[in-house]
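Encode chain A's predicted structure.
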Amino acid sequence: MTSCPCGSGRGYDECCGPLLAGGAAASPEALMRSRYTAFTRADLDYLENTLAPEAKEDYDRGETETWVKEAKWDGLEVRGATMDGDQGTVEFVARYKFRGKVLAHHELGSFRRHEGRWVYVDGVMNPRPAQRTADKVGRNDPCPCGSGKKYKKCCGA
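Encoded structure for chain A:
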């Protein structure tokens, strides 16, 4: 049994193989993993067929073919995936070598169901996590604990 290039830990024949042979992905993550596997196998038809119609407008098959064939794929890390009805996202890092350089493609990809099948819509490169914000309590503001005292005379002391 050959392990699947997507890094799922399962065999290719039970993981991405059926999808690349025409099966439908069960989730955005499954589609993302199968697309990574298609990159490793230079399966340009699969990569094109799993794009949303609007994403196909910008798809350059020749450029993709050059990139796919010259890259040496070193692994996929899925950092998170969401699915809400017919929409989903997958944050991932694909590692590869291209023209002698070690590179990483970090993306938050968007997916949706189109005609009953998951398709790749677009992605945000190098997504940043949401920043935590906290309201700053001034010294003379009422204390947030609810005591009625000024912050400096209560919890800020």
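Helices lie at 17-20, 28-40, 44-49, 53-56, 61-70.
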